[in-house]
Each structure stands twice: as structure tokens, then as C-alpha cells.
Amino acid sequence: MGSICNKAIGVFFEYDTPRIVHIRSKKVGVINRLLQLIIIGYVIGYAIVYKKGYQEVDAVQSAVTTKLKGVVYVNQSQYPDITTSVWDVAEYVVPPQENNAFFVITNLIETPKQTIGICSEDPKVIGSNCTTSSQCPAGKVLPAGNGLLTGECNTTAGLCLVRAWCPVENGALKPPDPPALLGSKDFTVFIKNNIQFPKFKVKRRNLPDNASDEFFQTCNYGSHSIDCPILRLETIVREAGENYSAMAKEVDMRNILDFFNDSMLAKCRFKLNHPEDQYCPIFILNDIISLTGSNYKEMALSGGVIEIQIQWNCNLDLSVTECVPKYIFRRLDSADYKISKGYNFRYAKYYKENDTEYRTLFKAFGIKFILSVTGEAGKFNFEPFLINVGSGIGLLGIATVLCDIAVLYFLKARHLYKDKKYLQVVGDDAYKQLDGQNDEDKSE
Amino acid sequence: MGSICNKAIGVFFEYDTPRIVHIRSKKVGVINRLLQLIIIGYVIGYAIVYKKGYQEVDAVQSAVTTKLKGVVYVNQSQYPDITTSVWDVAEYVVPPQENNAFFVITNLIETPKQTIGICSEDPKVIGSNCTTSSQCPAGKVLPAGNGLLTGECNTTAGLCLVRAWCPVENGALKPPDPPALLGSKDFTVFIKNNIQFPKFKVKRRNLPDNASDEFFQTCNYGSHSIDCPILRLETIVREAGENYSAMAKEVDMRNILDFFNDSMLAKCRFKLNHPEDQYCPIFILNDIISLTGSNYKEMALSGGVIEIQIQWNCNLDLSVTECVPKYIFRRLDSADYKISKGYNFRYAKYYKENDTEYRTLFKAFGIKFILSVTGEAGKFNFEPFLINVGSGIGLLGIATVLCDIAVLYFLKARHLYKDKKYLQVVGDDAYKQLDGQNDEDKSE
Amino acid sequence: MGSICNKAIGVFFEYDTPRIVHIRSKKVGVINRLLQLIIIGYVIGYAIVYKKGYQEVDAVQSAVTTKLKGVVYVNQSQYPDITTSVWDVAEYVVPPQENNAFFVITNLIETPKQTIGICSEDPKVIGSNCTTSSQCPAGKVLPAGNGLLTGECNTTAGLCLVRAWCPVENGALKPPDPPALLGSKDFTVFIKNNIQFPKFKVKRRNLPDNASDEFFQTCNYGSHSIDCPILRLETIVREAGENYSAMAKEVDMRNILDFFNDSMLAKCRFKLNHPEDQYCPIFILNDIISLTGSNYKEMALSGGVIEIQIQWNCNLDLSVTECVPKYIFRRLDSADYKISKGYNFRYAKYYKENDTEYRTLFKAFGIKFILSVTGEAGKFNFEPFLINVGSGIGLLGIATVLCDIAVLYFLKARHLYKDKKYLQVVGDDAYKQLDGQNDEDKSE
Fold first, then answer.
1. Residue-number span of the structural domain to which C7 is assigned
2. List the disulfide bonds (chains A, B, C) (predicted).
């Protein structure tokens, strides 16, 4: 029909729609509608609505800081080997700062007044026993040894001599029971967490905006009234039971961030699952341990590792005030382990007297708390929505395919349907037949 | 049509194409083409091209190290309570190392020569006031207290006696104003960041390869010439204004990593938004604080928390040299807070004299810098591309559905169209009619 | 056609299927089937099976702790400037704890007995040279300087006088060669890694459950038997070669976590790529460095940064016992750098004598190990599977489009095919022709 221009414009005035064979059949109709309903139900009900397939997601970005408070007194008569009797924050938090973690000493073995010299190796070190010097090859360091073998054997003690910080730590000593710093269970940690979902330009904090220092002070150690979110770790431990290898116990600590006020903080004390008592981002260590299903005293003995997970799963199609954190506590070390049960490390304090350096070695057992901020936010976005819709439409084609199979191969009237559905055209040599109209042509 | 074999082979020589009703109608044609253009425009223009739906993405994996430089002198006459007068890196970075973070002391309160003993509790501690001993129950630790109550009241002072590191810290003391280590604003931090996108086997660094130590030395403290990327935090603070609770001020610090040379580093000084002056990964602390919209002196008073985000968003379909980091600075603490404004922690230095241990307690106020490396890389991949294309084709079906509705229900000629579109076939009992051809059959 | 009710019910008893033009043509048939096979092959073979398009993925969440063991002796005669001769864990791990990282001192420069006072600046500091006092402006701190200029010049030494910790560190000193703590190459690090995939409720550890402390003790330093997974870093360095700027060498350290037993640990020593010798999560530092392709001695001289990546890529459709970690070691600093080669930082030990504070400054060179846990788990889920299927069905439409183009425009019989495929209907004014049947109508 004329020129290319006409054809091009013509394209805009044409509409192609497939010719449809409309079969009125109860059997096939019901199967067809059923299949379509299932597919549509899945796409809309499950993929789009339930699994939020209409949302774009963004992972949380976060920064956390912590601050501990608390003092414990270690009775010299009960613990004669521990030279310091008052342990405050500067004493029991070693190192004073860590990023996304903090450590609290709960028990310790002190080896005071060590100076570099030559002395007997610790009998618990494998290979330290000797009867002759040949059993102590000079220059070697025994596995888990304290120093360098000098090549001599202290035949009296039956132990190799080493060049080390002497006297060496006594490997036979078990950490004191009960734990020296068991009082640490009443310490509190104030966790401040700032997060953002950059794709959606949303920033949140796990703190309320209008409370004061004074209230946080009393809130920490307040009476057992019912409305404070301070985690009484003791309580939580008991309530969660003893099975720390089970799924972490979750505490839904919705910090009702936007209507928190001073007076609530003044009287508050956390109660598990209490709708109003979940406000303070101040946790008592005992409560944290209990929430993992462990017992503080048992854990304080040889130490352990706790993961504090702050989970921000937010649906930003709702009000942003609904975007609150959830705290999950999980114990990571396991009492099942014979290997390296608990958690400990060594550090030292250094002194000088008359130009000689000496040190006190601390084998510090304690609880390492590792902070982990996770989560994602979802918000409506056309893209994932339309991908799901487009795929859903593609899936509807399956209903047609299956019903076609039923109609063309299994129903009684299948020959009729085949006739009606297919217009047979003979192929490559068809053009030869263009002149002579034949049966197939007319049967269309 | 003989055996199965023939049928199987026959499948390869057949082609099924839907029969199309070709309607030449201006109204419907325009609607149809418009809908198709919108859908195709969305799929190609938005989902695929603009949102890079043709790319596979990979999140960044990163490691960061930092190194601070700087010295500040604290005048004893101005700050009589601070016993150390020269503060260098070993003094003000506590602890000496943190992973993905560093802390700089900007102000402090010293309590020197503390030894363990019995003394009056701090009057600022709630519950420390007393007139009789019964008000100081032995064994208890007051909230935010310094030690264990002995059970006695110092009636002269009107304060409970505690077993603690004595003398206790004076809770009434405010951090000195102006901040003792205000000079820290001129300190520099050298941030070294290694990243990789493992899926695409791409590794990048935020450092140029061919600069020398000497130039980084002069580059740090160079004159105010215009071409250095050292962040003059002082400048950035002013330029960003005072509103730190607003969206973080972004500095597009494209380290032009691959054509950086020594002489440029020698003279360089960062200027916000200057196309060439963004080279050094060396930041002056004052500049970082300013970039968040804060004032260094105000922040140094009680401390604070800054997040330094190194963002690597790379399009790996372009040259890998375009994959450069972007630095975003955000202040995390808030002056709105009455709670725990600023940032501080306590640590101590230990000494021994005549076998008695004593310590100097430091309440260190300062700025905690938390490093966060984020970002993702995208690269063309058939998978996401074809998923988008497939969904797009499915979406085109919507155009047909909508136009069919218009054609069959709203146009004048709808009855004709219905006739032409649908071939009516009566269902289950149709086979009975196979023998007798009827009208519906012929009307096809 | 009665009421709406009838119509609604009628919908369930109807089935619409497109009328198909069935062309028997070898050419088109083959092209069509080929295109369909390619598309189906891509969708099923590549997108779904190979790229696991049927799986939902979840990123790993992790917590890691480390513990070092080892002692090294520093010979005073070889290193007269180093005052401590025995270096154990409390000495060489500074700070004692870091989250997701640890640092080991391998070399150092000590500046003992520093006290605050006035002395000459270090000649290596740029600007420290002077002949007159005017060249030393009071109150200024030189770049990389040690203290505050007093305004006076020590004309004898030709250096500006500074108020600093005196004597200042000698900037001309190079770290000792060979490294003072070269013995650190035999230290071992025990890495404990807990991970979880929360979406699938799967928790894993990189440790076996049934080994004891004693075996880990001997396992560390055991003989060179073939079945232990302890990484002999010395070996790995050699085997990986010297090219640390190349792709990180991977060690497939499958901890066969669920059938590990004590006796295997007792005798074990890691051998690269040995199917059974990959059990201990205990690494010898030398082995780690070697695995990156570096030489320990060279790295220990000025220090460096190593990334230890623990990669958990798990297919949870298989047994969960197959979910094991893979360790990848990568060196992050580069010897290509003239800038800040290696890794070092400064810290100090403090002492008091007669009420004067003095300190020993340590410039510690060493290896910073940064731990990075990455990975994701996949598990079958209908959603991603059906999205791929739906998109695939959409893609099949492309085959039809392409074959239609071939059939309608390129084959000899194209006019016949066009006739058969399209039922021409004239549009808007068609209703006028409803009365008069015309040629176009009849040609259907």
C-alpha cells in the first residue's frame, strides 16, 4: 500500500489480537479456571503480597558504641592471689575500647612480680619434664611453653630450665570457683546504635530523644517496678532455660523510640515480653547471658562469647516509627567443647623498680560480647513489582499449555477441538499450491 | 503420520504460530501502540538502562587501616589538673589500635594517685548522702557508684564511705572548656583502604601507587595552596554549616588513583568540590568534623562519634579506573541528647611504689571515628538482562488484554470484532455434533 | 446470555485457547525448534541449574575470636636497643584484643626513658634544621614532628628545640634487619568462627566438636606427619611463590567438621591440597604469610597487613555437613609502595620514679591480620524458581516473533502464510459494513 512512510504511519493504526477458540466445556473450563486461580493466587498472594515481592530492599549500615558501668569488690581473704580488690570500669574492661565488641573480666589468674630470667618450665607444659639436660634442647620452645629452653635440666625439680618471665604461670591452676568477679553480672552496658538505609534515606537510632542522664542513672539500678526495659539478665537467663545450643532466645525489645519520655525511664525495669517495659537500651550483663539460655555463674567461671545482634527489619511502606530494633542474644562458645572451653587471654601491667622491669601477668577469663547489627528495609518500588507481574503473566501461559493438552489429547471431542484450534498449512512447497486452491485451504 | 519416530522427527519440521485478527482501526491502533510504547519504554528505558537491570551486582569486601600523626602541647598553667603536657600519638590514641575505628582524646579529667582504700563516695552519686550509717548498707554498690559501701557514714562530710580507688573521681567536674587537646584538630589520619569485588575479580585501593613518604609528609601540613586533597577539616566544618542532624555532607573525594604523581602530592591541599584537589587519602581531623556540619571545638568538649564512610559504587562496564571511592562523613551522636552527650570512657595508667599499686584514672573525652566501607559493583550479565527482557515480554501481554477489552466492549463495532476474534466451539457434547455439521461450525 | 449471575458462573465453564496456524515446513520448523531449544536450554541449563536460579540466597552472619600462642627470645647482644628479651603473648599482641583482627609485633624500635622536657628535634623532621632561633617559630609543630617548637635553636646541634618526650625518637633508625621477633613466624593462631544463615536457620562452626585441649596442644607443634591441617605458613609461602600482588592463593581448608576425631588432631599437620590434612583451624603465622605468596622475613622487617578471609559458600540443598569454610589469605599492603611501606604504630609503657613520669616508646612494626567472614547460602525456593520460569516463558515468545518474521517476509510462500495468519478486519467503520458482507469479510 504505497510508500514506506504510509506503512510506518499505518503501524500506529493497526491492532493485532490473537484469534481465540472459545470452548464452552464444563470440564475444561473448570480445570482452566482452577489453574489460573492457582497461578494468580501464587503470584499475587504469595510472591507479591506475602514475600513482599513489590518491595526494593536495602541492607542496613550501622555504627555501634558501648559504655559499661559497674564496680565489684574482690575479697582478699576469699581470693588471696588477686592483688587488686576493687575492680571498676578501668580495671575490668580490657582493652578499654573495641569496635563492635567489649570484654568484661569475670575471673582471673594473676602471676605477679615476673621478671625476665631463668627458671623451671611449668610442669603442665608437655615436654617440660626431664632427668638429664639432653632432654631440654637449647633454643627450642616447647608447645604452649613459657620461654626458650636453655639446654639445662633442673634435676631437683625434674623440669627443663627456660629463659622466660619468671616465675612462669602455674598451668595447673584452675580459675577460681566461684568466679572472682561474679559481681559483674550486675554491670550494665549502654548500647548506642545508629543505623541508616541509604537507598531510602532513612536514619534511625535505638535511643529515645528526650530522656536525661539522671533517669538513665536510676533506670539502671531501679526498683523492681514493672515498666522499665532494662534487661535483668538474671531473669532472662532463668526464663530462657539452660539450653544455649538451641535457637537464640529472642527478646522483642521494641524501643518505642518516638514517644519515650523521662518519667518512664525513671521507673523502668525491663520485663520480657511486657508491651510497655521495653524501653532502655541499657542491659544488665546477667540479663544478656540469661537471654541466651545460660547461667551467668557457670559462664563467668571460664568465660565465654556472647553475640548481641541488633536486628533492624523494617517495612518502610509503613510509618518510619515502626522501624525499631530487635535484640537477639546468642551464646557462641559451647560447653560441649573440651577444646578451649570458655574465653580467656593474657595481658600484663608493667612496673619498674631500680631500673628493673617487672610485670604482673593476668590470665583474664571473661565474657566477650560481640555486637552485630543486621537487617534490611523494604519499600514499594515498581521494578520488583513489575518483574513479578511480568513473570506471573508468563506463568499463566502454563495454564493454557496444560489445558490444551487436556483438550487435544484427553477429551472425547478432541478431534473436533484439534480441527478448530489448528489451521493446517502445508509448508515450503505451499506456494506451488497457491494457484490451485485445495481442500486444506478451504478447510481453514 | 505413522510411527512415534515419524511423529518425533515431524515435530522438528512444524511451526505453530497464533492466528491473528488484524484490526485496522485508528482508535484501537493508537491506544495499542501507546500502551506498547509505555511498556517497552519502561522496560528498556527504566528497568534495564536507568536502573541497570542488565547488571549483576556484587557487594564490596574491604579491609581498612589507619595511622594518626600529630602532637599537641597542654599548658600546665591553663590546665593544672592534667599532669602530662605533651600528647603525641602514643598518648592520645587509646587503645593504640582498633579494627575499623580509632579514638582521639580531645579533653580529659585526671584523677591521679588513686590507691585502693576507704574514702567518701562522690556526692554526685545518687544515694551517697547520709547522716547515719544505716543509710549506707554495707556491701551495696550505689548506681554509678565508685565502690562498695562499707556500711559507715562519714558524718562530717555527710557521705557514705566506700571501698574504692581513692580518692574517687570528682563527678562534679565538667570537662575543661576550652578542651585541653583542642590542638588535635590539626592531627591527620592516613586511611588506607583495600577493597575487592570477588565476583568480578576486581581489586582496588584508595591510594595512588607512585607517591613517596616525603611528599605525604609535606602534603599533610602544606601551605594553603589550592591543589591538595587533604581535608582541611576546619574549612569543611564551616562550609557544611552547623546542622549536623541533616543529611551528611558528601565530599566527592575521587582519588584519581591512576594518574596521581609525586609532585601533585607535594603541593596539595584539599578543597571541597575542586576537580583536581581531591587526591590525598590523608584527612585533617578538623576537616572531617567540619564536613559533618559540626564545629570541632564544640565536639571536642565532651567528645562525639563520627562515621567515616568510604563508598565504592562502581560500574565495571566502564574502565576500572573509574572505580574510585567516595568519602561521606556523618556525625552519629547528637547534641539534642540530654543523655550521655558526647563520648567518653575511662582507662588508667598503673604504677608501683614500695610494693603499693597506685594508678592515674583518666576520664577521656574524645572523638571516636568509626570506619565503614560500603558499596557495590555492577557488571553486564545475561541473566539479569534476560530476566528483565522475559518479564518485559510478559508485561506486553497487558497491552493486548487492555486493548481487547476496549475492542470487545467499548467500540461500536464490538460485535463484529467479537465474531472475528472468537471461534465458538460447544464443549463436552460437541463430539456428538461431529457428524452433523452445523451453523456454528461453518461460521468459524 | 441471561443475567449477570449466569454469566459469572459461565466464566468457569469456558476455556479460551488461541487458534493456531500450524505450518508444516522443514525450514521454518527447524529454525523454530532450534530457537526454542536455545532459549529453553539457556533458561533451564544456565539460569536455573548452573547459576542456581532456583535458590533463594542468604548472606552469612558471623562472629570470630582468635587466640595466639608462642614465645620468642630476643638476644640482647644482637639487639642491644631492645630492653625486653622474652616476648610472649602479653608482650607482642598489642592491643591484647581487637574485634576481627589481631596484631603481632615482628620488629621494633625502642626509645626508652623518655620524660617530658626540652630537647633537640629529630634531624629527620623536615624543618628541624636551624642556624638562628627565628627559624624555629615558637608554638609551631613541624610536620611529623615530635613536639612544640620553643622558639629557640640549638646552634651547636643545628636543630630547633622542642618541648616533647625527650630524648625524641631517632627518625634515622631503620627497623633492625633481621627482624627482632622473626621467631614469630612459628606462632600459631587459633581461629574460632561461628556463623549462621538466619533465613534458613542454619548455624555452623569452623571447629570440630569432639577434640580435646591436649590434642590441639600437640597438634600445633607436632611432627611433620601428613595428616594435620595446621597451616605451615613457611611451606605455604614457598608454595605460593613470591607474587603477592597476584590473586590471593586459596587454600581449600575444608574442616571436615562432622567426622573429626581426637586421634587425627593429635598427629596432624596441614599439607596444602591434601584431602585429609585440612582439619585444624590452627594456623602457623609463617604458613599464612606464605599462602599469600610472601616471604615472612621480608614482611616481618617493616610489617604488613594480611587479610584472612573465611568464606562460607554453602548449597543447603545438599547435606549441611557439606557446609564448610574455605580460607583465603591476601596480602593488602604492597612492596610497590614507596609510601608507608609495611605497617607500624607507636605505643608506650609508663613508669614513675620519685613522682616523675617516664615512658618507653615503642615503634612496633608487625603484621596486622584482618579477619573477614564472607559467603552466602542458597536453598531451593519456589519464588526465584518461578520467576525464572515465568521469564523463560516470556522469552520463548522471542522464538515465535523471529520465526514469524522469517515466515512472513522471507519465505517463498510468505503471501500464503500471511493470508492464513491474519484475519483482516477493517476498523472503525467496520460496523457500517456489518450489513453488507464484502470480500474482506469472506476471505477471513
1. 1-16+423-444
2. 119-166, 130-153, 136-160, 219-280, 314-323
